Amino acid sequence: MKKLFIKTYGCQMNFYDSDHMSNLLHDHGYEKSEEIKEADLIILNTCHIRDKAAEKMYSDLGRIKKNYENNNLLKPIIAVAGCVAQAEGKEIIKRSPWVDLVVGPQAYTDLPKLIEKINKNSKKKEISLKFPEIPKFDSLKFDRKTGKVSDFVTIQEGCDKFCSFCVVPFTRGPEYSRSKKSILEEIKIMTQNGVKEIILLGQNVNAWRDYSNKSKIYNLGSLIEDIAKIDEILSIRYTTSHPLDMDLDLIKAHKNVEKLMPYLHLPIQSGSDNILKKMNRKHTASEYLKIIELVKKYREDIAISSDFIVGHPGETKEDHHKTLEIINEVKFASSYSFMYSERSGTKSSELDENVDDNLKKTRLYEIQNILNHYQLAFNKKMENLDFPVLITDKNKNYQFLGRSPYNQTVYINEETLPVKKPHEKLIGSIFNVKIIKSNQNSLLGNFTNND
Ligand code: SAH
Ligand code: SF4
Ligand code: F3S
Prior knowledge:
Helix 8 (220-228) runs parallel beside helix 9 (248-256) and helix 12 (317-330) packs parallel to helix 13. The mean pLDDT is 95. Among the domains are: 2-128, 3-Layer(aba) Sandwich (Rossmann fold); 142-261, Transcription Regulator spoIIAA (2-Layer Sandwich), CATH 3.30.750.210; 386-447, CATH 2.40.50.140. It is an alpha/beta fold. It has helices spanning 12-26, 51-70, 82-88, 90-95, 111-120, 168-171, 180-192, 220-228, 248-256, 273-278, 285-298, 317-330, 357-380, 423-426; strands at residues 2-8, 30-32, 41-46, 77-81, 101-103, 126-128, 150-154, 156-157, 176-177, 197-201, 235-239, 263-265, 303-310, 334-339, 386-394, 399-403, 409-413, 430-438, 442-447. Residues 159, 161-163, 166, 168-169, 203-204, 242 line the site of iron/sulfur cluster.
C-alpha cells in the first residue's frame, strides 16, 4: 500500500475529520504512516481561526518541500484540507505552487477521486471547496478504527451566529445538524471497536436538533439521554456550547443522566457588555451569569470552563476589568484565552480602535494569571476526593491515564492496582480513584476499589 502522512491543526472537529480522511483513503490504497519521509501523500488538515494557526501551515509547507528536495525523495502528492483551504482556496497554490490539491472541510469525500486525477497527471492542480448536496456525513463510512477508548463524534457543523471576530461561519459554512439516526449508527459501530466514552462535537453543539422529527422537539438533551441507553457507553461529554442555545433539557440532563459528565465548556469571550455587543455575541455578561446559576441549580458540582479573547478592537481598560471581574465571580475550573487576531473578511476587521499589541500581551498575561489561579484552586479541591475514572491509556512511568468527571487529566499509580489483570483489559474499564495530589494541569491518584 502507498503511505499517507496527515497532520492536523486546530479544533477537535478537524481531528475527527482527519480520522475519516484516513479511513476513506485506506480503501483507496493509502495506509497511514507517522513517518513523513516515506509518504506518497501528505495532507495538512488546517485551521484558520487565528493568524498564527494559518501561518504555521505555510511554514510547514516550506519544510515539506525542503524535506523531499534535500533528501532526493520522489515528490509526494501534497494536499491542503480544512479551514485554511476553504478560506484561501487557490491562493494557497499561488503562494506554495508545490501544493497539488486543496479541499474544503465539507468536500473531503472527493479526495479519492481528486487524488486519482493527480496520479494520472501530476501537473494537474485540483481544488474542491463545495458544500455538497449530500452532506459528508451521509457518504462516510463509520468504521474508523482509532483504537481509542474515548472518541469524538461530530454531530453539528458550521455556524450562523457570525460573532464579529470569527471565521468559522465562512470556513465551515451554515449551521447543520446531522440526523439522529446517522449519529446513533456511528456510535453503535464505535462501540464495536471498543469506544466507551463519546465526546459529541459541534461549533455550536447545543444548537443541535433532529429536524427529521417534526412532531416533537428532539434536542441535544434528548440525544444524550438516548446515547446513555447504549450499555457499552460509560461516559458522555460534549463541546462547544453557546450561551444562547443553553436550553433547560440539556441543563436537566446534567442532573438526570448519570453518564453525562459534570463539565460545561461555555465560552463568554469577554466580561464587558460593550465588547460583547461589538463582538455580536447576542448575550450580556449578566445573562451569562444567570445561565451558570441555573446550571449549578441542577448540578452543583459542575466544572465550568470558558474561552476569552483579549484586545478585541475598542477594548478599554474598563472593559478589561469587567473581564477580570467575571472571572473572579465564576471562578472557572479551566479556560482558554487568546489575543485577538484580526481575520480578513470578518466584521471586527473593519473596526477602528485596534488595541496595541503590547497592551494585548499585558492583558492576556493578567487574565491568564487569575485563570491559572482558579484552575489550581479547583484542582486542589479534588485532593482526597474519590471518584470513578475511565482508564484510557497507560504511560511509561508506571501510570494509567484517564479523565476525572470534571475533565482534568488523572494519572493513576499502577502499583495501587487492585486487580492483576493484563493491562490491555483495564484500559476501557472504570475504576474508583482517590486523588492524592493536584497540579496546575492534572491530578495524581491511587486506585481504591478491591475487585
Ligand atoms: N463556537 C465556539 C468557539 C469556536 S472558535 C464559541 O462560540 O464559543 C474557538 C475559540 O477561538 C473562540 O471561542 C474564541 O475564543 C477564539 N477565537 C475565535 N476567533 C478568534 C480571533 N479572531 N482571535 C482570537 N481568538 C479567536
Ligand atoms: Fe465563531 Fe461565534 Fe460561531 Fe462560535 S458562535 S463558531 S465564536 S461565530
Ligand atoms: Fe480552526 Fe476550522 Fe476548527 S478554523 S478551530 S479548524 S472549525
